[in-house]
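Notes taken during the Thursday session

The instructor put the following on the board and asked us to keep it in front of us for the whole hour. The protein is DUF3795 domain-containing protein. We were told not to look anything up and to reason only from what is written here. First, the residues (326 in total):
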Amino acid sequence: MKPKELYAKCGNVCSRCPSFKTNLKTTQDRLHCSAGWEKYLGFRLKPDSLVVCDGCQFQDDEKPSRYINCKTRKCAVYNGVLTCAHCSSYPCEDLPAESVSRESSEKRIGGEMSDEDYARFVEPYEGRKFLDQIRSSLTSGEIAEMKKVSLKPQMANFPEGLSLSDRELKSYKNLYSILSSVGTADGISYARKEVLKKKRRYLLKLLWAFGSSGELKDGKCLVIDAQTYIAQKTHSSLSVLNSLCAALKEYGLYCEHVPLQEQGWQTPTGALRPKGWQLKMTCDSRHGGLSALKVLKTYVNKLIEEYGDKAYRYFSRADMMFLERK
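Then, after some discussion, the predicted structure tokens were revealed:
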């Protein structure tokens, strides 16, 4: 590692980034940074809106950082390592993928870029390359063992001695199992925990939408419209939605994104619009089939009836204590 360079936890070269504190001092610096980012990286910030960055290599209580909530930084801080390259699990699945390269930037501009512009606007963000260089320079004693963590949200206990039919009891227990285990894991990295926390929140919001607003169709599925999904404020990306649907398959739940028109339901960048499509959810027979979907609707609507605006809080904890009062 070159002593003069300051590397971020993820390997990006802070000291060569045009928005780093030593590089963003004059109006001309701001103009060059704004223009370079737009030209080579595809996003534009007005020169006067650029924020001087101190990097991420300082303690949380020393000075606020724009990246203080970055999952990669949080993981590195938790493990007490200077960069991801100093961690025994490097490279791991949660290390940010390379988002830029000389090739992608030249494809964007339709020609070659100068070595000077490459060094200023692209190379500083090729973090994986620098992490590999750092890793190759380390001794085994300089590599720290990753601290494993778990994601186990606090859940309510399933009520005992319920006056329900065997079929109802089985359906509620299955629903409880889904709500209490979806998105949880043991023996993972801190970064993976941060990813799963967000994913769990998205999955619960998706199930809540089907339970609160889903309509039973064709005697086999629940359907919600585009506006209902977008209102959950999860993520508007189709790729993210598809990943959520894939995650639910483990629990016998099958979600399908169904366009209702050929065009207009998606933005040019891949975001979903609140119209022109819907979501369908079915449940396989091994996990309760149609009765499981009906129980989901019954459960959510009972929570709303019991707790009003606080109902989702009980849902996220799989709280079914109201069944004791049935």
